[in-house]
């Protein structure tokens, strides 16, 4: 069985690093960490103390300051690899990660995948012939020496570059090396890593060459693996799913990208937002899960390209492409309380919470201020909740870690009721039928803007029958829909009759339902 040593280069967010290390090593894998020497020393101390007792975690023997585009990133990786090789003799694979990466498959799936494919996974395209580099320097990255950081020492970087170009101070690529380029997120077998480390010790000329190239983390390992490993044992791909915008910026994944990520033919994803707490929680649980079946669709990049293109010409789908709108889950049970008198439904819901401990949410599709957890923004407005209703409900099921969830809806939300009733999950409906006094109807008219403080009694007298008939009509439409698992409590019915209906709705004993229906003033205005 494959055992993976994860190579983690990081420089921030110690809490996330600790959790990532604990999560990945809990199933028997390993981790070697290089924490940037230029980062906060207190954060490194916190990481090392938290993980000191974990035998499956080691740290790079030497910490160095790292900078984007510099050799230091390759050197830090070599330090972490050397520590991992020595500390974990049973590791069969070495997987390059960053602090923004997370597994999008279970450990069971990942290990089996690597067992089934005895190859190295690394992008390695011909540097000069391929179109991997879209814009900017290409050959100049190699034939000129780069001593300065282009981002932090821009003037020095380009002054040195322009001087070499003016004086024609080019250099040759080592004769036996065919430079390759590709993503720095690779997964290599132990034998390959040992060959790379031995090569680095023996070929000082190659090391000197790469140390002054620009962005060598995209070329060093890619070139050496291609040079050392038979071509048939290399898969020119990464196992880490990442996407870039047209502007070259990495796409960041948030809480509502879960379905998109797990359906891709990759083992990890990058970059996961630091704020995507629910996504991290769900992916963390997924990694430790067993016997999970993954339906691989692998359409992420093409859909992203297609839909961002539609956005530029003002066209959008009503649902985002990362949402699987088909079902809440066959094993889940959505219980919907439907009542025109919202305060009555809320009163019933509170008693249900006290009696059953089933998570219950009030009128989330009708009241903007309904208390909801942070779900990455999908919960912020009524329009978003309604448009992404199935995704919202799936996220709520996941947030509460439950297979049963109760929500309240207004009888006017027939479209929502029909949509949830058509789902593969079990949907149960409890309609609470109330009596409507004239005073209640007047108050309702004012709440919804049909009447105001200055509305005349004559106008109200003409308006009330219309409102009453409208409420009756909403109830009739629900009856005409012929929902399965439809129970009904009535204000005019006895406590015992209502207890039978509630017991059927909640699938609880009748005696327990009576504790709810016997509540004083349950239907009171």
Give your account of this protein's structure:
The protein has 525 residues and is of the alpha/beta class. The chain has 20 helices and 17 strands. The chain has a 5-stranded mixed β-sheet with strand order 3-2-1-4-9, sandwiched between helices. A 5-stranded parallel β-sheet has the order 14-15-13-16-17, sandwiched between helices. Strands 5-12-11 form a 3-stranded mixed β-sheet. The chain starts with a strand and ends in an 8-residue tail after the last helix.
What key phrases describe this protein's structure?
single chain, 525 residues, alpha/beta, 20 helices, 42% helix, elongated
Q: How are the SSEs ordered, and which strands pair?
A:
Blueprint: E1 4-10, H1 14-25, E2 30-35, H2 41-51, E3 57-59, H3 72-87, E4 93-98, E5 102-103, H4 107-116, E6 120-121, E7 125-126, H5 140-143, H6 154-166, E8 180-181, E9 187-189, H7 190-202, H8 204-211, H9 220-228, E10 234-235, E11 240-241, H10 258-262, E12 268-269, H11 277-288, H12 300-312, E13 333-339, H13 342-356, E14 360-361, H14 382-387, H15 389-400, E15 404-409, H16 414-421, E16 426-433, H17 438-447, H18 457-481, E17 486-490, H19 495-506, H20 510-517
Parallel strand pairs: 1-2, 1-4, 2-3, 6-10, 11-12, 13-15, 13-16, 14-15, 16-17
Antiparallel strand pairs: 4-9, 5-12, 7-8
Helix pairs in contact: 1-2, 3-7, 7-9, 13-20, 17-18, 19-20
Biggest sheet statistics: 5 strands, mixed
In round numbers, the mean pLDDT is 88
Uncertain runs are 310-325
Structural class: alpha/beta
Q: Identify the strand order in the major beta sheet.
A: 3-2-1-4-9
**Cα separation of the termini:** 65 Å
Number of strands: 17
Helix content class: 40-55%
Return Rg in Å.
Answer: 31 Å
Report the portion of residues in β strands.
5-15%
Number of helices: 20
Coarse morphology: elongated
């Amino acid at each position: 069985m494959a055992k993976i040593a994860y190579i983690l280069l990081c420089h921030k967010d110690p809490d996330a690093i600790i959790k990532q290390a604990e999560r990945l090593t809990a199933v028997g894998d390993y981790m070697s960490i290089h924490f940037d020497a230029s980062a906060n020393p207190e954060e490194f101390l916190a990481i090392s103390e938290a993980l000191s007792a974990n035998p499956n975690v080691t740290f790079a023997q030497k910490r160095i300051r790292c900078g984007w585009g510099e050799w230091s990133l390759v050197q830090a990786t070599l330090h972490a690899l050397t520590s991992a090789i020595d500390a974990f003799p049973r590791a069969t694979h070495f997987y390059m990660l960053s602090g923004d990466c997370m597994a999008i498959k279970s450990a069971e799936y990942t290990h089996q995948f690597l067992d089934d494919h005895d190859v190295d996974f690394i992008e390695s395209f011909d540097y000069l012939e391929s179109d991997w580099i879209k814009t900017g320097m290409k050959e100049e990255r190699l034939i000129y020496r780069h001593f300065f950081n282009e981002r932090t020492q821009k003037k020095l970087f380009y002054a040195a570059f322009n001087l070499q170009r003016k004086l024609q101070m080019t250099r040759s690529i080592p004769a036996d090396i065919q430079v390759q380029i590709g993503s720095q997120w690779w997964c290599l077998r132990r034998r390959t890593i040992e060959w790379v480390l031995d090569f680095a010790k023996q070929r000082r000329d190659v090391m000197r060459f790469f140390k002054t190239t620009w962005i060598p983390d995209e070329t060093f390992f890619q070139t050496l693996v291609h040079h050392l490993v038979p071509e048939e044992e290399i898969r020119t791909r990464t196992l880490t799913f990442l996407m870039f915008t047209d502007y070259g910026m990495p796409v960041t994944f948030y809480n509502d990208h879960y379905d998109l990520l797990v359906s891709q033919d990759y083992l990890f994803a990058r970059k996961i937002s630091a704020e995507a707490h629910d996504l991290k929680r769900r992916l963390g649980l997924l990694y430790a899960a067993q016997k999970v079946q993954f339906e691989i669709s692998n359409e992420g990049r093409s859909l992203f390209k297609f839909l961002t293109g539609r956005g530029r010409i003002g066209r959008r789908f009503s649902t985002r492409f990362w949402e699987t709108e088909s079902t809440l889950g066959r094993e889940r049970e959505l219980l919907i309380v439907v009542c025109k008198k919202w305060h009555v439904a809320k009163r019933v819901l509170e008693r249900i919470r006290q009696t059953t401990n089933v998570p219950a949410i009030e009128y989330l599709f009708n009241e903007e201020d309904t208390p909801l957890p942070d779900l990455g923004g999908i919960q912020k407005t009524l329009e978003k909740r309604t448009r992404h209703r199935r995704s919202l409900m799936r996220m709520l099921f996941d947030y509460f870690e439950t297979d049963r969830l109760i929500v309240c809806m207004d009888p006017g939300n027939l479209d929502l009721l029909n949509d949830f009733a058509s789902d593969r999950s079990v949907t149960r409906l409890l309609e609470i039928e109330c009596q409507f006094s004239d005073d209640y109807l007047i108050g309702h008219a004012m709440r919804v803007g049909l009447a105001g403080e200055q509305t005349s009694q004559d106008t109200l007298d003409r308006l009330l029958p219309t409102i009453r008939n409208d409420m009756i009509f909403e109830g009739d439409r629900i009856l005409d829909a012929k929902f399965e698992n439809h129970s009904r409590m009535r204000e005019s019915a006895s406590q015992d009759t209502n207890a039978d209906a509630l017991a059927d709705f909640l699938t609880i004993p009748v005696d327990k339902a009576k504790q709810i229906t016997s509540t004083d003033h349950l239907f009171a205005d």
